[in-house]
Amino acid sequence: MKKVIKNILMTLPFVIMGCQDETERITLDSPQDTMGLKVSSSDVVLNQDLGNEEAISFTWGSAANRGEGTKLTYYFKMDMADNNFETSIAKVEIPEGVQSISYTHKEMNALLSGWKVTAGETAMLEAEIIAEVSGGSVYMKPEISKVQFSVTGYYIAPRDLFIVGTAVEEMDAAKALKMKEVISEQKYEWGGHLKKGDFKFIKSRTSLTPSYTRGADDKTLVYNETDDGTETLFHIDKDGYYFITVDVEKLTIASEYPESIYEKVWAIGDATPAGWQPFSAVPLTKINNIQFVYEGDLYAGELKFPLELDENYYMSYLMPKTHGTEPGGDNTMEYVEKEKAKTHDYKWKITESQTGIYKIILDTYLMEITFEKKHDLPIKAVWMTGSATATQWNTPFEIAFNSDEKEGTFVWEGHLNTGEIKFPLSNTNGFECDYLMPEENGTSVTDAKKMVRKNYPDTTDENDHKWKVEEAGEYKISLNVIDMTVKFEKLY
User: For a Cys staple, 274 with which of 143, 236, 266, 280, CB 3.0–4.6 Å?
Assistant: First the structure.
């Protein structure tokens, strides 16, 4: 009996293997595509200035009915073309009854960046709509519809936002103050002195519209494409330092009126008139609840800012975070208590070439320092003329640059056509004036870096140099008349 059982057990694997070999494998065919996924454009060019507007949309029809008791659920995916959707966006479940999905210019540009597509380059993408089946008695493959299309992205250029109004200086776009762009095209910050008055936010120093003004309360914004007389401005009742945060996507604003923990600040060092004599230290002027200002000469040497005076230098200080920091370097500073100041003796450094008259602003809320060197600017106004401009070669010159926050810098934003351009320094005597020109005639604006001043009559004939605009579009031009540099930035 044992021998019989043993023989049966020995033959059992062969029986099982034989059954397996005889099993018929069934392959399910993919359902025919009846949804017909379509894309709004097969060749999409993204535009930063249309960021929140629809760039592309997808539509489809209903999938084939799978019989009684079944339910279809639709999902959308998108990826680089011919990639088997291995780096696809997360699968998007489509609400019941909806047969479309769309993406904005900003959303699509962000997707291209995530797929490591170089800004400005064209990429082939692929989308699919998937109709998955549930509720049936047997498994049924989903119906799938695909479409390919190309998308050209853009380089994310800074998008400025300014604060303007009687609380700043006056309701003059040219005198607006630039905010710090924290999140591209969305979040902006600004800290500084405001006086009693009104303010709003604008996109350029050339126009008071479009603008962001007060919404339903002091915490919300409303966007105005034009000024129809219904704008409600924000209002300041109390002079002082304010720190303002604006989110133009969420249309929110937050305003702080911080209090300084420092009552007095002095300047000391061989870079200052006081030298290293504590009781001769130069007092800074407190201009509001947070900021202190020094205005005067700086010599070659070092300086730091004591918060108290002691003949033995046993004092707390405001110091740079890195010893030997020069104007134009890291603008952050830190508080150093007196016990630590003996060994942590960091100072700012002024070189021989940097000496001059300065305005130094200490922001004790942001803990930042600003060195503003005063110059007797040789050029105080700049215009533009040329076949690339809207006014062509006509006088008097009507297109003027605006002064920027940075001393000696002039800026202009607007449309340029293909053609030539140069910058006159007067608009009263026709073409007989001084100009800012390229060193070589015909220099492309894409290669523009340096400029020279040419005085009349050395601005005619073979000396009449001009820059060449080879591609029409919206530009931002920045001129610095101190270091004589020029920058043409094509916005779009």
Answer: 280
Q: What is the dihedral of CA 381, 385, 388, 392, to 10 degrees?
A: 140
CA 153-158-159 angle, to 5 degrees, is: 100
CA–CA gap between residue 470 and residue 418 (Å, rounded): 5
CA dist 63 and 34 (Å) reads 6
> What is the SS3 assignment for 352?
helix
CA 340 to chain CA centroid, Å, is 39
Cα dihedral 249/477/164/359 (nearest 10): 120
d(CA 98, CA 96): 6
Tell me the residue type at 29.
D
Q: What is the DSSP string of 372-383?
A: EE----S----E
CA pseudo-torsion sign 71, 76, 82, 88: negative
Q: Which two tokens stand for residue 240?
A: 């002082």
Tell me the per-residue pLDDT of 169-182, one tens digit each, with 9 for 90 and over.
889 988 899 999 99
Residues 307 and 333: beta-carbon distance below 8 Å: no
Contact call for residues 63 and 131 (beta carbons, < 8 A): yes
**Which residues fall within 8 angstroms of residue 84, CB to CB, at 6 or more apart?**
none
**CB neighbours of residue 187 within 10 Å:** 18
- Residue 216's Cβ-side half-sphere holds a number of Cα atoms within 13 Å equal to 2
Instruction: Tell me the CA end-to-end span of the chain in Å, nearest whole number.
Output: 93
Strand partners, 301: 350
CA 62, CA 196: separation in Å to the nearest integer?
62
**70-114 per-position pLDDT tens digit:** 999 999 999 999 999 999 999 999 999 999 999 999 999 999 999
Report the 10 Å Cβ neighbour count for 465.
20
The set of long-range contacts for 386-392, using a CB threshold of 8 Å and a minimum separation of 24, is: 386/419, 386/420, 386/421, 386/422, 386/466, 387/417, 387/419, 387/420, 387/421, 388/416, 388/417, 388/418, 388/419, 388/420, 388/421, 388/469, 389/416, 389/417, 389/419, 389/421, 390/414, 390/415, 390/417
Q: Token digits for 161?
A: 């936002």
77 and 89 Cβ atoms separated by less than 8 Å: yes
Is pTM beyond 0.85 here?
A: no
